[in-house]
Design goal:
about 450 residues; alpha/beta; TIM Barrel; three-stranded antiparallel β-sheet; about 15% strand
């Protein structure tokens, strides 16, 4: 794969300093494909200290330019670290979130400056039509992440067929089991997981129609050990299969996450990973249901519809803000609001769906500040209403039911605050750390030990 002889074991790329050059270099050196994150990766000063990504410019547009510079320099630095550890014969990939701000620019500049270091690009969260064109122009293999045959069909017909020689593989990411952002479509029920086998079988059937019989499919999401997937290996209906591990590499010596985070992983129980839709990307995503997620849940529960004009149904008037703007709510919601105010949730904030959410004054201040401080880390952000278009906004109201994803991921990845207070991405198999005998008595393996164990089917 990617022109290298490798074990069909791929490290899943995890954004913002979670899949680093150190962890991915160790995975590649162990024989698999190491994947570092190209999403706002860390850079270092001459003494080896992490350079904080502090934004000094006054406007979102200029802060967005700062973010691009941070991202490119960080990705190049992590690529070099991974290559130095793994050696020239190993396979190193970069993971890119297509919905991140300036994804095309960051990927192009990274591949240009890390020429000969990066072997492949893994890319998901959206429909990365230009991934093939950009990767092929630098002679680098590309690996789109899809959750259905239909998604790959659209990518192939629009662009990938033009550069099929650089299509290194197709990652099927289970939208119900994978950590991070998930590719659930509007027609799929988040509460009703589907068996991945028929979905991957359909993907292979489609790929064969495009003469991609020998192009590997990479199963991602819910993969813990290979013995549970033995019927997928050497299966003529599925063809060449590899497996991606996103959650398990978190708990290794080389993993850069905090000791607090690693300890928490060892104690996660079944059902503690939640599939939710609070992300400012608009995608579903999977994360540990900690205090951070619980606060978002309760924030949305304290929600009432409103109108700006009085009607028979919306007949109770409230005034908001220093200008005393009038909003009309249903009389039936008045008692709920009075109760929320008594509990300290006295500040209403408007949402794009003509509702009010009720939060504390402190939380309201934090939400507004985070929206103002936006640096355009996504191509389009529901939380701040940023968009990387000429106007610099998506034409909608900022949504206070979401959050600044850049802020929380930077904080948790660098141990700035407790993991209970930040977004903690994880796959739905994370509870298995607590039951797998490999991790008995809190054992944390080196990457090489983990890859060796997985290779044995354990």
């Amino acid at each position: 794969m990617s022109g290298k002889d490798v074990l069909p074991l791929i490290e899943g790329g995890k954004g913002i300093a979670i899949s680093s050059g150190v962890s991915s270099g160790a995975w590649a050196k162990a024989g698999g494909i190491g994947t570092f994150s190209g999403v706002n990766a860390d850079s270092y000063d001459e003494e080896g200290n992490i350079i904080p990504q502090v934004y000094k410019e006054k406007t979102r547009t200029l802060r967005h330019k700062e973010l691009v510079e941070y991202s490119v320099s960080g990705a190049i630095e992590q690529a070099k670290i991974a290559r130095d550890i793994a050696g020239n014969d190993a396979a190193i990939h970069v993971n890119i979130l297509w919905e991140m701000g300036a994804a095309e620019t960051i990927l192009s500049r990274t591949l240009e400056k890390a020429n000969g270091i990066i072997d492949g690009v893994t890319c998901g969260a959206g429909m990365p039509y230009k991934l093939s064109e950009i990767s092929a122009s630098y002679g680098v293999y590309y690996y789109p992440i899809v959750s259905s045959a239909r998604a790959f069909n659209a990518l192939w017909k629009r662009s990938y067929r033009k550069t099929s020689e650089y299509l290194g593989g197709v990652v099927y990411e289970d939208p119900w089991l994978a950590g991070g952002h998930n590719g659930l479509s509007n027609s799929e029920d988040p509460e009703k997981p589907q068996d991945p086998y028929p979905r991957v079988k359909d993907l292979r059937k489609l790929m064969n129609q495009f003469d991609l019989n020998d192009t590997p499919i990479i199963m991602a999401g819910g993969v813990w050990n290979l013995s549970e997937w033995s019927d997928w290996i050497d299966n003529p209906d599925l063809g060449s299969i590899a497996f991606q591990f996103g959650t398990r590499p978190l708990l290794t010596k080389e993993s850069p996450i905090s000791d607090e985070w690693k300890k928490r992983l060892l104690n996660i129980k079944p059902g503690e990973v939640s599939l939710h839709k609070f992300s400012p990307t608009g995608f579903y995503s999977s994360a540990v249901r900690n205090d951070f997620l619980k606060e978002l849940e309760s924030r949305s529960e304290r929600q009432t519809p409103y109108l700006r004009e009085q009607t028979n149904e919306f007949n109770h008037k409230i005034e908001i803000g220093p200008r005393k703007r009038a909003y009309y709510i249903k009389h039936a919601d008045k008692s709920k609001i009075v109760n929320w105010i008594k509990k300290g949730f006295e500040k209403p904030l408007t949402t794009p769906n003509d509702t009010l959410i009720w939060v504390t004054l402190k939380k309201a201040s934090q939400i507004v500040k985070d929206q103002i401080d936006c640096m355009g880390c996504l191509s389009s952000c529901l939380f701040s209403n940023w968009s990387q278009n000429e106007k610099g906004n998506n034409g909608k109201k900022a949504d206070p039911r979401s959050f600044c994803i850049q802020k929380t991921l930077q904080r948790i990845s660098h141990g700035i605050s407790s993991i209970e207070n930040e977004l903690m991405f994880a796959g739905h198999s994370a509870y298995r750390f607590a039951t797998d005998p490999f991790y008995k008595n809190g054992f944390i393996p080196k990457v090489k030990q983990l890859v060796d164990r997985i290779s044995k089917g354990l």
